Amino acid sequence: MKTLVIIPTYNELQNLPLITSRVRAAAPEVDILVVDDNSPDGTGEAADKLAAEDSKIHVLHRAGKGGLCGAYVAGFRWGLEQDFDVLCEMDADGSHAPEELHRLLEQIALGADLVIGSRYVPGGKVVNWPKQRWVLSKGGNVYISVALGAGLKDMTAGYRAFRRQVLETVDLDELSNAGYIFQVDMAWRVVQEGFDVREVPITFTERAIGESKLDGSFVKDSLLEVTKWGIRHRKQQVTGLAREMRRLGAKGIQNWRKKHMI
């Protein structure tokens, strides 16, 4: 299947040649799309040079820093227009090992619609994270799993492979852009649409070069949003159950009346 790896960048000048070379070595058959948000450190220009030297590397320039969700949505749309069958998300900082991409693509080949590289399924792990951050991430994912009942261990994970049919079905314009919550939003929508979603273990390694774009506010914003979704989902479940009980009750009464000729 024709596969595209989307790598958003903002000030990743040092990391970009490293991650693209690793992808090309690990999966030479896939294409790479660098989505750069007008990085002031020259990442966009470096991406253009890489693309000029390698026909498998492409670049999409955006006008400014529009956030990770917007970068991925732009990348998805570009990939769909170019007729790619599988579209993948990957961080530029090396936290997602290109050498593990085959795990995601193998499950796609076996019929999965969305495959998530998970830190929290058996075999998954995190390297070089402080204990507090691990607890925050792990605890947040447990809360999200309970609130939404999606049956997934790592809904905030950003290492993913999608079949194009998934991205054509989900309304990309409606994704929440609050912090990193769009990853949860996307996975939740895919689950609700009835697609086959699977998780595979990965080793997530904290970046060695540059600074994280993540700030603490995303936790509060994300969990508040998830709480709203969970409450709405439970209300819909209760409403649906009540409707079904009324239907079954009415049907039972009709059957009883027919039986007793009333």
From TrEMBL:
The keyword Lipid biosynthesis does not apply. Belongs to the glycosyltransferase 2 family. It catalyses: a di-trans,poly-cis-dolichyl phosphate + GDP-alpha-D-mannose = a di-trans,poly-cis-dolichyl beta-D-mannosyl phosphate + GDP. GO terms for cellular component: membrane. GO terms for biological process: glycolipid biosynthetic process. CDD domains: DPM1_like. One of its GO terms (molecular function) is dolichyl-phosphate beta-D-mannosyltransferase activity. SUPFAM superfamilies: Nucleotide-diphospho-sugar transferases (SSF53448). Residues 5-169 form the Glycosyltransferase 2-like domain. Keywords: Glycosyltransferase, Transferase. This is dolichyl-phosphate beta-D-mannosyltransferase. It is an enzyme of class 2 (transferase). Its EC number is 2.4.1.83. It comes from the Bacteria. InterPro entries: DPM1-like (IPR039528), Glyco_trans_2-like (IPR001173), Nucleotide-diphossugar_trans (IPR029044).
